[in-house]
Amino acid sequence: MDSQPLLSVIIPNWNGKHFLGECIDSLREQTFHDFETILVDNGSTDGSAEFAEKRYGDFIRTIRNKKNLGFTGGNNVGIKAARGEYIVLLNNDTWAEPTWLGELAKATSPDRPIGMWASKVYSYYKRNQIEAVGELIYWDGLSRSRGQYELERGQYNEIEEIFFPPGCGGMYRKAVFDEIGLFDEGFFAYADDAEIGIRARLAGWKGVFVPRAVIYHKNSGTGGQYSPFKAFYVERNRIWITVKYFPLPLLLLSPFFTFYRFIFQAYGALTHRGAAGKFTKNYSPWRLIWVLMKAYGSGLHGLPNMWRKRRISKALRKISYGEIFAWFKRFGIDARGISLRD
Fold first, then answer.
1. Do 185 and 256 lie in a common domain?
2. Do 212 and 260 belong to one domain?
3. pLDDT tens sequence across 90-124
4. In a domain, 73, yes or no
5. HEC per residue, the chain
6. In a domain, 223, yes or no
């Protein structure tokens, strides 16, 4: 603990004891060793913290929060405690290839523009199915994982620039957080990787995809993949992203893009396609409408606070509006793709 590690791996956890053994065991089996592991327990009641401390001893540093601070708050606690030059965020419902951290470490660069790195994330249950190789953005602030649900055909085997990394398996230069601040804890969970990624891009940082850094993810193992919990936070938080960061012309057009997206999502809900369709397989379409109404109510309630943060974020921006609009051409996804793709 006296020497500074290159990497700090942060695992936020809430009642995920049943995930932790496999996740942390995969870290102990890494071929790269210059890292520390920090488990941030968000007030779990299932004995997660006790399990980790007893089983892993000095290999892991456990921080106990008194309450659930969400993905955002839990990671912020871990980042503040981290000693590494690079911060690696790892969901508790993952298993990492033994070479994962070594590949991320090899991809690090002293060049300032590169501040974020994305792992190659596969489905834990379908090992030849891609879950994420970076993230894409729609015109109303909603994001979706690039390559999601595609079968592995060698189509993402090159190191390349990406918009921003998904929070699961993403690595960030600690200097990024020093410059732009930590996660917005008001977001709590979901779209938090988009919020921090867009903020970093506005400050001039860029992201890179590292295809040989491989992890497997039990998608939404904590929050539920197509749950009301996830649907609420995804929709509400994308509203806040547009208010905080989008240029005014795009912010004013955002409702029209959202309406266009809703047309496809309504079709998906009726035909059981896309996320809306999978939601309505487990719940009714009326439940989806109710969740969206709650999301918009909460989103509107938080608008004054987001507008204040918008003014603060202007001081971080180092790129032109032209570069911002270019994001949607280079890293964008259309309404049909974000609504109906399985």
1. no
2. no
3. 999 999 999 999 999 999 988 789 999 999 999 99
4. yes
5. CCCCCCEEEEEEECCCHHHHHHHHHHHHCCCCCCEEEEEEEECCCCCHHHHHHHHHHHHEEEEEECCCCHHHHHHHHHHHHCCCCEEEECCCCEEECCCHHHHHHHHCCCCCCEEEEEEEEEECCCCCEEEECCEEECCCCCEEECCCCCECCCCCCCCEEECCCCCCCCEEEHHHHHHHCCCCHHHCCCCHHHHHHHHHHHCCCEEEEEEEEEEEECCCCCCCCCCHHHHHHHHHHHHHHHHHHCCHHHHHHHHHHHHHHHHHHHHHHHHCCHHHHHHHHHCCHHHHHHHHHHHHHHHHHCHHHHHHHHHHHHHHCCCCHHHHHHHHHHCECCHHHHHHCC
6. no
